[in-house]
Amino acid sequence: MDIKTSCLGVLALRPASGYEIRKAFEEGPFSHFAEGGFGSIYPALSKLTGEGLVTFEVEAQEKRPDKKIYQITDAGRATLVEKLCEKAPDDDKYKSDLLFILFFAGQLPADRIRNVIDDRIAFYQAKLDHLSECGGAGEGSAPDLVRGFGVTVYSAAMSYLQDHRQDFIKLADDNRPAADAAD
Amino acid sequence: MDIKTSCLGVLALRPASGYEIRKAFEEGPFSHFAEGGFGSIYPALSKLTGEGLVTFEVEAQEKRPDKKIYQITDAGRATLVEKLCEKAPDDDKYKSDLLFILFFAGQLPADRIRNVIDDRIAFYQAKLDHLSECGGAGEGSAPDLVRGFGVTVYSAAMSYLQDHRQDFIKLADDNRPAADAAD
DNA sequence: GACCCCCTATATCGGGCTGATATAGGGTTA
DNA sequence: TAACCCTATATCAGCCCGATATAGGGGGTC
C-alpha cells in the first residue's frame, strides 16, 4: 500500500496531525503491518491536500510548532475504498535480519546467537503485551480481527524461537568450541 | 540487512551470477526473509568487486549476454561474519496490504473480502509446499531451522485466515447487504 | 505455422521511501 | 545539571524498487 493510501486509512479513523499518523504506524492499530516515517508522511499529506482528499486546520500552540490537524474529505473516503478494491493486493513483505543471522549460525560465535535470540524473544513478548492492551475496537470488529492475526503470528514466531533456541546455540557451539559453553 | 551483505550471504553458499542471486531471494533458501531486485543487486556486486570482497569470472555464452560468475573472497567471508556480529539486528519488517484491506472490511464489498482472503490462503499453501520441497540442507542444520521458522509462521497465518474467513466476510455483508449473499 | 509468453542474462533510470538531521522548548530521570 | 525523551514540523541525501531496454531460445496454444 503506498504511503498516501496508508495516511488516508489512518485519517479514516479520526483526524490527526502528521506526528500522530506516524504514531499510528509505530504504536497504534496499524503498527504490525504498516510503516511510514516523517520523510514519507509530510510529502504525502501535501499531495493529498492538493488533490482535495484531505483538509487541515492549524491549531496554534505556544512554544512549539503549530499543529496541523488533517481531516479526510468525502472524496478522500471514496478514494480510499477505490484503492482498497482496485487490484489484487501486493504480497506481504517480510524482511528479517534475525533470520539472516541465524541462517549463518554455524559460522558465528555462540554468544552472538544467544543474544540475538533472547533479545528477539523479549521483543516479541513486548509486542504481544502491547497488542493485547490496544484492543480499543469492539470484539469481533475488523480492527480486532486484524489484531488477532498479529497476535497469532507473533506468538507462533516467539514459540518457535523458544523451542529451537538451544538447537541454534548448539550449532554455533559445535563449530567454535572455544567460546564459553556455559548458558 | 543491506543489499551488499545479503549478496555476500548468497555467495557464501556457492558462486552465482547476479541473476542467480536474485533467484535465491525470490525462490531459494532466502526467499522468506530477504529481498532484492536487479536494480539493487548489480550495483551492489560492482561495489563489492571494488572492495575486493568478491571476484568474478566471465563465462561466455552464445546468443545471450555473457554470464558473470561471482565468487566470495576470504576478505568477503570475514566481512560477512563481521557484519552479522556488529550490532543488534534491526527489527523484522512486516508490511501487509492484505491486513490493511481487511482492517477496513466493514467499508468494502463482501466479494472483495472473500477474494483477497481466498487468494492469500492459496498463496500461503503454495509457499508452504515450496518450503517443504526445498529442504536441501541437512536436517537440523541452520538453514533447515530457519526454513522451519518460515513454515511455522506461514502455517499460523494461513490457519488464522481460514478460521476467520467467515467473520471477515460477515462484517462486509452486514454493512452492504446489497451484495450477493451466496458463498 | 504464427503468435505470445516465459526463461535466461545484464544493465540503467526515475521516482519513492528510509533514516538522519535541523529546529525548539518542555518534562523527566539519574 | 546533564542527558535524554517527548511533542511537532520539515528537508535532504542516499538507497532501493519496479519498470524498462536488449536479445534470443524454448514451449504452448489456436
Brief sketch in words of this structure:
Chain A is mainly alpha-helical and 183 residues long.
Overall mean pLDDT of chain A: 90
Following the backbone from N to C, one meets helices and strands of chain A in this order, namely: HHHEEHEHHH
The oligomerization state is homodimer
CATH superfamily of the largest domain in chain A: Winged helix-like DNA-binding domain superfamily/Winged helix DNA-binding domain
Could you describe the 3D structure shown?
The structure is a homodimer of 183-residue chains. The first copy, chain A, has two domains: 3-85, Orthogonal Bundle (Arc Repressor Mutant, subunit A), CATH 1.10.10; 97-175. Chain A is 60% helix and 8% strand. The first copy, chain A, contains seven helices and three strands, in the order αααββαβααα. In chain A, strands 1-2 form a two-stranded antiparallel sheet. In chain A, strand 1 (54-59) and strand 2 (67-72) form a beta hairpin. At the A-B interface, helix 1, helix 4, strand 3, helix 5 and helix 6 of A face helix 1, helix 4, strand 3, helix 5 and helix 6 of B. Strand 3 (93-95) of chain A pairs antiparallel with strand 3 of chain B. Chain B binds a DNA duplex (30 and 30 nucleotides) through helix 3.
